[in-house]
Design a protein that fits this description.
about 55% helix; about 750 residues; four-stranded antiparallel β-sheet; alpha+beta; 10 strands
Length: about 750
């Protein structure tokens, strides 16, 4: 934690970018003071004052980071045509001009003496000074010297040309990377497009960026020779001597005839640009710049589009420990350095998020990623100093927030974060190590979602055998589950996942397998729960009914699951209607598992197995065992009612479908068993009903009339008769006698004997 805080302090102390203007980063309205940023970081990390001062002092003692200028050369338009065919072959030379200092002023003086004054006339130089944008005259002259040194010259002397070619061969085929760099040549166009990136080491933020655009001449490589030979220049003073040599050679070649521009030179100059690095905001700048003239005689038109931003690089990674380190100037490996920056940015974002959640006191799920301006500014500075692209920053947000899932972070926030990541995604923008980290996070989140889908039915699991159902899942839990499904679908169908985690099972197939496994897992959990209940409530009196009771508890629990699964069905319809049919997969899986369970029980040869119990339905009536028979019939009728309810969900699924799917439970024909059990139950019900009415008639003699209210009076027998009829009709409507003749006969018997 101290190392991360030290990095944060170091970032604050070495802010980069234009500080006078507002910083447009999210809701950041302006640049905050250094002390405010340090105080916020101290509060967010919960660092005591002593440790804070020690780490600030340590950060101040560290070497400042190396400032880098990143230039993305995009395109130019409306350039001057220099070739006879009406086109040009433009290329760009660009570099950084050090700011004025003592050494710099000496070098400027040397460069001026070397060239013998301006290559333009004094009047032209005066006009240029007057037209410059507020720059002092001496600054303008330095720019003219640098711009002039980029001119394409014609060298008539073979010795001079051979010398430049030798310098070029010593540097190899590459373009020098120390001071001045050159772009590729765009052939026959006045609107070139480069899209090339360059990076320069900047000595100070007051340095200036300068570029020249030239028309390439295949017969004369002098400008490329100049650029290549600059690799041999050591220091600014050497650069001045080199410009002196080039200028003197150019003057020797200019005494002859005229040329384009009328200044006695082979002038293929297309325009230039100078931009102060201090004007670059921390967010960078991307815009069209008007090309500038070198002199009044220079013919220039058009604009150039650049994207420029500043970043930093540390010589070594900061550590809060006092271990010995080598102070030599050694850059870290690019990949390792990038991974450390990503890790630090992710941890910093997570720390600020946790601090804001705790400070506000709201539930974690209420956090929507909104951070205060100070936090955003620190994160912004860390990102640009680490040269993290927008994709890197989206990746860090994703990594930070998925680590907070266990704390209850909102899946809505995760969905929005990953959506932005997908929007910024560009293949090959991340290096391999960064892709591995992102791929691993995608796999971890995918596994989390798979596990949640597998066990989502356990949220609605109830105690089997109890008619009292547990409360439905809270709305927030259902909403969270729906948001998680939405995230998972986005992830699995995204180009990011397809690129980083290839060769995965098709999403539709995977979801179907997950829901089938989920139903299987829930079915086994119900069986395990029933076995535990059976061990607790088992006794010798109802030992023979254990099999049929367990079957009833199983079917009853499945019915409860199917009833309450409608809440999840709505979510799946909303988020994955085109992927899976939640209700159909769940019911078909339960149907298959229930059928296999019943077949397994029927094949058992134990004395209390399901087969032996169902066979009792067909035994002849035995007056000596009426009580035992009634105890057997009751659980059988409960199973019958439960199966009817279970098949009712099947009918709902088949509504509106064409054809007929053969469910496994349809193959199990127990109609004869249940018809016989219903017939015997109705006989017992009639006996008990008349017995109850006889008792009620006897009670009428003791209290003949019961006053219900001022207008209604009833006897005890009348009230009992109504209750008995209501209960019998309620049960009769739910019983299903498959034999139509038997059903008609039983209905007539029920009506005649009771009415």
């Amino acid at each position: 934690m101290n190392d991360l805080y030290l990095e944060t302090v170091y970032t604050i102390l070495h802010r980069i970018g234009k500080k006078e203007s507002s910083v447009s980063v999210g809701s950041v309205g302006g640049f905050s003071g250094e002390e405010q940023l340090l105080q916020y970081a101290k509060s967010a990390f919960q660092i005591d004052e002593k440790t804070h001062k020690a780490l600030v002092e340590k950060a101040l003692s560290e070497k400042p980071p190396i400032l880098l200028l990143n230039v993305l050369l995009l395109e130019a338009r409306d350039l001057i045509a220099k070739d006879i065919d009406g086109f040009s072959d433009p290329f760009v030379m660009l570099g950084v001009i050090p700011s004025s200092s003592k050494g710099g002023e000496d070098e400027q003086h040397e460069a001026t003496n070397a060239t013998g004054g301006s290559q333009d006339s004094p009047e032209e130089e005066q006009n240029n000074n007057n037209s410059s944008s507020g720059k002092p005259p001496q600054h303008r002259r330095v720019l003219q010297r640098l711009s002039g040194s980029f001119r394409r010259k014609a060298f008539p002397g073979a010795s001079r040309r051979e010398k430049l070619e030798a310098a070029f061969e010593q540097t190899g085929d590459g373009i020098p990377a120390r001071i001045i760099k050159a772009s590729s040549v765009q052939r026959k166009t006045l609107n070139p497009k480069w899209n090339e990136k360059f990076q320069f080491v900047v000595g100070d933020c007051t340095d200036r960026f300068h570029l020249d655009i030239w028309d390439h001449d295949d017969e004369n490589r002098s400008v490329l020779d100049v650029v290549s030979s600059l690799n041999q220049v050591q220091g600014l003073k050497g650069l001045g001597r080199y410009f002196k040599e080039v200028t003197q050679s150019a003057r020797a070649s200019s005494g002859g005839g005229g040329c384009a521009g009328g200044d006695g030179l082979v002038d293929d100059f297309l325009g230039s640009l100078t931009f102060s690095l201090g004007e670059i905001p921390s967010t960078g700048v991307e815009q069209w710049f008007n090309l500038e003239k070198r002199s009044e005689k220079s013919e220039v038109s058009g604009q150039i589009k650049l994207k420029m931003w500043l970043s930093t690089r540390e010589e070594h990674r900061l550590s809060s420990t006092e271990e010995q380190r080598n102070d030599d100037f050694i850059f870290l490996d690019d990949d390792a350095d990038g991974l450390v920056d990503v890790q630090q940015h992710k941890d910093l974002l997570r720390q600020f998020a946790l601090y804001e959640i705790g400070r506000k006191g709201d539930p974690v799920c209420a956090f929507r990623g909104q951070l205060p301006d100070l936090a955003l500014l620190i994160l912004h500075q860390h990102a640009i100093q680490s040269d993290l692209t927008e994709l890197h920053q989206m990746m860090c947000q994703w990594l930070a927030y998925i680590q907070m899932i266990g704390m209850g972070i909102s899946f809505e926030l995760i969905y929005e974060t990953f959506s932005r990541l997908v929007g910024k995604w560009k293949p090959m923008e991340l290096d391999k190590d960064e892709e591995y980290v992102l791929a691993d996070s995608l796999l971890q989140f995918s596994e989390f979602c798979r596990s949640a889908i597998l066990r989502h039915r356990l949220r609605i699991r109830v105690r089997s055998g109890s008619r009292r159902r547990s409360p439905s899942p809270k709305r927030s839990e259902l909403e969270s589950f729906g948001e998680m499904l939405k995230c998972y679908k986005l992830l699995r169908e995204s180009p990011v996942f397809a690129h980083l985690v290839p060769y995965q099972t098709h999403f539709r197939t995977e979801m179907r397998e997950l829901l089938e496994k989920s139903a299987n897992l829930h079915f086994n959990a119900i069986l395990l729960n029933i076995e535990e209940i059976n061990k607790i409530e088992n006794n010798s009196k109802n030992k023979e009914n254990n099999a049929i009771n367990r079957l009833y508890l199983l079917i009853h629990s499945l019915n409860t699951t199917l009833e309450r699964s409608s809440k999840f069905e709505d979510i799946f319809k909303q988020e994955m209607s085109e992927i899976v049919n939640y209700a159909d997969i769940g019911y078909c899986t339960f149907d298959l598992l229930l059928h296999e369970h019943i077949i397994s029980e029927l094949m058992s040869e134990g004395c209390s197995d399901l087969r032996a119990i169902t066979q009792l339905c067909h035994h002849e009536e035995n007056s000596n065992n009426i009580e035992d028979e009634q105890q057997i019939l009751l659980p059988i009728l409960l199973v019958h009612l439960a199966l009817n309810e279970f098949s009712g969900y099947r009918n709902i699924l088949m509504t509106g479908t064409t054809g007929h799917f053969q469910y496994r439970m349809e193959q199990l024909d127990w109609s004869a068993h249940f018809d016989r059990a219903i017939q015997r139950w109705l006989e017992f019900a009639q006996v008990h009903a008349f017995s109850r009415l006889d008792l009620s008639l006897n009670l009428d003699c003791q209290s003949p009339i019961i006053l219900i209210n001022n207008d209604i009076r009833q006897t005890v027998s009348a009230m009992d008769a109504c209750h008995i009829l209501e209960q019998l009709l309620f049960i009769w409507e739910r019983l299903r006698v498959e034999n139509m003749q038997l059903r008609a006969s039983l209905t007539i018997r029920l009506v005649i004997k009771l009415i």
